[in-house]
Design goal:
0% strand, single chain
């Protein structure tokens, strides 16, 4: 566990949590928090994807 961590509560829909759990299992990650940290680290390190991630309208529900 590199670096200090803080605990936060986030609200996810069941399909979003299903995705997080599936990625945890698929990549043998320690826990769901690690999945979220991987996603966040990717976004922090890749400014070029911000437009497509945050401006594209997705109507999944």
């Amino acid at each position: 566990m590199a670096g200090d961590k803080e605990t936060y509560e986030i609200a996810l829909n069941p399909d979003q949590m299903g995705f997080v759990r599936a990625m945890k299992e698929r990549y043998a990650l320690a826990d769901e928090g690690k999945v979220m940290r991987v996603i966040m680290d990717y976004l922090i390190s890749n400014d070029d994807v911000h437009e497509s991630v945050f401006t594209q309208v997705r109507c999944l529900r």
